[in-house]
Design goal:
Blueprint lengths: L8 E4 L2 H7 L8 H11 L12 E4 L6 H4 L5 H7 L7 H8 L19 H20 L5 E4 L20 H10 L2 E2 L5 E2 L3 E5 L6 H7 L11 E7 L13 E5 L6 H18 L3 E5 L24 H9 L4 E5 L6 H15 L39
Parallel strand pairs: 1-2, 1-3, 3-10, 6-7, 6-9, 7-8, 9-10
Antiparallel strand pairs: 4-5
Helix pairs in contact: 1-6, 2-11, 6-7, 10-11
Bound molecules: zinc ion (ZN).
Amino acid sequence: MQQTYERRVGYVVSNDLVKVSSLLPSNKNRSLLVHSLVKAFGLLSTDDAGLGVQSLPPSPAEFRELSAYHDRDFLEHVLKEDVSTEDDANEEFGLTEASGLGSLMDCPPFPQMRDYVKYVAGASLTAAKALKEDKVDIAICWDGGRHHAQKAQASGFCYVADCVLAILALKRPQPSPDGGLTRPRVMYLDLDLHFSDGVSHAFHRSAAGSSSPQVLTLSLARLSDPSDAGFDPFTLALPLERGAGRGAFARVWPLVERVRAAFRPDCVVVQCGADGLAGDPYATWNWSIGDGEGSMGWCVDRVCGWGCKVLLLGGGGYRSPNVARAWTYLTSVALGRPLPLDADIPDHGAFPLYAPHKNRDEYLVASKKTSQQ
Ligand SMILES: [Zn+2]
């Protein structure tokens, strides 16, 4: 691992956020598992010198904040009066595919969807604000990273475009020491198995005609944009083959570094979708969380060492205990104190869910019981 830094790290969490985020139909209870494991490993505590993670409780986003990107009609629809059960949701929302929620297959309405949208957007905006106000160097928001959501439509279980909202907040001009205004450059790096269509489309050609482009998106994905809306040097994708593992990532990483060196971002937003890791039900890539060059932990460690502000977001990942392991490990990497890859899962409420799985793969930290149990 890279040398450790004294980093100011902020971590977005609150009981309300975990409660509503755990209701996401594609990832039920995942949020609960993730935050419980991070806490069980003691990563949210501070040391004797007061160094450690700064807790960032999110405020739910207001309509005005959500409308910085989303269409009014879409927001009025997803924020309409709530329902209590999934059956009620289907009935009372009376949704069709033209209603703004996208396909009912991959964007079903769900109880507390309204609160979910407000809290997940608010979570990523809280992280962006802490970076913008220079309260932290790295901000972590595992409930964010909904990279498929569009301006006027939910898509792929992404009901709100929190990545886009966070980027818009981070790029907002701010006063410079000389009395003028600076326009921060924001690089968005997407490590999810799937192409970041929602985010890439939002900023596609936004730099056209600009002498100082502010946003660059780069998606390392299984496939790039199928709609191919025309080349834009600030909307990039690096498609990787089926079966790609840390060797493939190690080979393309110099390109990521070159993009970074050319663009010179003030802030990097990393979407850390975990569905490309070995053991995920998508079973497409064979990426590992740690153990050397090209692993996901290694890539995130590189970014954390770039010396600019870093926002780490979640994303896909469909075997929740594996995602909890992965994002716990990445939290430790962000802190500059990477956990041993063979660390035992601590005893905590969700412990039984970490029993060895028949598809257990090499990147997983061990899940055997400790001798005290
Ligand atoms: Zn994905």
